[in-house]
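hey so i finally got around to running the thing on that chain from the lab meeting. sorry it took forever, my laptop kept dying and i had to restart like 3 times. anyway pasting the input first so we r on the same page abt which one it is
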Amino acid sequence: MNNLKNHHNKDGSFKNNHSIEMTHRSLKSVMKWKLLESLPKRQSIHHIECDLNKFRNSNESLISWIGHATFLIKHNGLTILTDPHFSKRASPFQWIGPKRTTPPSAQVNHLPNIDIVLISHDHYDHLDKASVLKIHEQQKSNPPLFVLPLGLGKWFKKRGINNWIELDWWESHHIDGWEFTSVPAQHFSGRSLRQDRTLWCGWVARSTADDRKLYFAGDTGYSPDFKAIGDHFNGFDVSMLPIGAYEPQWFMKHIHASPEDAVKMHIDVQSKFSLSMHWGAFMLTNEPMLQPPHKLKQALLKHKVKTSDFVSQDQGAIISLFQ
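ok and heres what got predicted. didnt touch it at all, straight out
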């Protein structure tokens, strides 16, 4: 009898719910991309320093985009951090690899006390060892809970971090009046030649006291998964959706959402209000650095979505949740 879930392989690796062309796995395609596609001009996006004292001292429900896929969130007694990345490069080394064009809007050693850290997957621009270790080190007396996709706990345990839980897609964990649920994303994992040995996911954070729901999509291409997520949770109050790292489309379209894909995700998950992410920090792909928000506005008009419902906010700005 086969008890494997659809996204589990017999060898212990994982796969997406929906079949995709594995263009990003072909050495020929990678070489074609690297040799034929020109890199854009390095540019920094507009950013301001996040006023972290508001998160420490205010009882308001707040959210701030710190940069790339890192958000700082405060609501109903918890402070949540997503995919913390505060280093200069998205790389195992700080002398080579994608270098930041825009600094984070906060320094890791200045963060308020973090209760929950959500990790979407193990790629270097989302799971940064230096940032994770620093957060763990400076909160040893009151460590945050790292909420992880399946298989990633071993990485944390190896580095002396034991305050974590792993969740498979559609599994939930309840803590302090919150429910955290791992949901499907269309992507892949791997920090070496060994691919897909740990799961990738998005996260739903639901405050059980007031049924407010937040959706963090992680890193993903567009797929039918988002309609299923929206239907399952009956929509979201706030979503954090990726709009960058999509060119060239022939290479990236299945694993990274374009701005138009992000608008379709916004519609599919029934989001009342969405914030953009995954652009402007690292030069990972071939679209011009400042293009994603312009393409987002065009896609919103095309799909008849109010521009006030899906915004490309200033990095570091603090927004009141549920306003």
